[in-house]
Amino acid sequence: MNQQADLGITEEAAEGRITDEALAAARALIGAKLRPEQFLRDASVDSITIFANGIGDLNPLFRDQEYARWTRFGGLIAHPCFPWTHHWPGRSYWGLAGVHGFGVAIDCEFFRNVRPGDRINIWNRVLDVQEKPSKFSGRMVMQYLESTYTNQRDEVLCRALGLTARHERKASREKGKYREIKTHVYTGEERRAIDEKTLAEPSHVRGAQTRYWDDAKVGDAIDEIVRGPLSLSDTMAFVIASGRGAAHGALLRHAARHPKHYVRAAGGGVEYTGIGHHREDFARKVGVPGMYDYLPQRACWFATAITNWMGDDAVLKRLRMEARMFNLQGDTTFINGTIVKKYVKDRCALVDIEMKGTNQRGELTSPGFATVMLPAKDVNTRIPTDGTVCDLELPPVR
User: How many CB atoms sit inside 10 A of residue 198's CB?
Assistant: First the structure.
């Protein structure tokens, strides 16, 4: 028997099945604490800036040290979603071997900022495993994972609920729900309009111009941002910004431990089964018509839309984003939002924002929700420096 067979890595992706036995094994982990991934852990000026580049965030608060030192933070801070570089919320390595996983929702509450010199730690806890019907693959399993991110002082940075849908690859491929979707062909006028909106984004970053709660009104819209058309460079930039990547022996050792999460590529090399984010041919093998984005990547775009709008003196308290449709190569996502509630809780001035991500066809691909703590002119309200005073009443994930 050759070494390839010994490792159990096959040339075709494993066709795992959602059986009653596999489902019972996954449910047996409910309540268990899972070992996290070991990727980017230390925050530095470089890693913080590279992360901003990888999600297309141009806010100087997250990338310009000279600008940041004159803000209330007195120095550079990381984008709110930076802790996810250590472990993407809801990651589906656990249970149901050979059954493909797609991230479908992230619901995150933020408590503290990350600064250069911080070290990120995490612990994951399995909350639930539910079987649900699916038009995409017939039988589907939803996994719920809670990720708590802390710093080197054991202070909580953020806590995220991640939802991952597990689909049988063969069933997804054969049902072909998205088979007829083709890469969008833009007119020159459409491309210019997208480019102009993208290049104009820095002019809409609120920054040092304080946005007061007193001036915010229900019905006010946040400034729209545009992400796309999605390209291979976009997905690869997010992977690099998140510290992902292993090659040769480092990759092979991990593949040997999780052989059903890897395949032998053309020429005999090893690839992770998530390569469909970057290669159309493999994406089609799991029922997706082309390469597609990452759930946390899209959620970061939503956070950017909020931080651009709220300014340096506000606090992003909560962000929820659901991926209801695939965002494929060539798709453009237009992200906007509207204030739907304005209130004071625990002396903190808050606004709730309903968010929407739509594609170039006008389809709602990503509904979202955010809660922002804004500074108020009334001295009876305040912005805590650590962002921990307000105890939010969080509506359930739908």
Answer: 16
Q: Are 136 and 177 in contact (CB under 8 A)?
A: yes
Dihedral over Cα of 344, 346, 347, 348: its sign: negative
Rounded to whole angstroms, what are the CA distances from 266 to 117, 282, 342? 41, 12, 56
Overall fold of domain 3-373: Thiol Ester Dehydrase; Chain A (3.10.129)
Model pTM?
A: 0.91
Q: For residue 257, give the amino acid letter.
A: R
SS3 229: coil
Q: What is the dihedral of CA 131, 135, 139, 144, to 10 degrees?
A: -30
The 10s digit of each residue's pLDDT in 197-251 is: 999 999 999 999 999 999 999 999 999 999 999 999 999 999 999 998 888 888 8
Tokens 């930039």 map to which residue? Answer: 237
- Ranges of H-type helices in 8-109: 20-27, 45-55, 65-68
**Number of helical H runs and strand E runs in the chain:** 10, 12
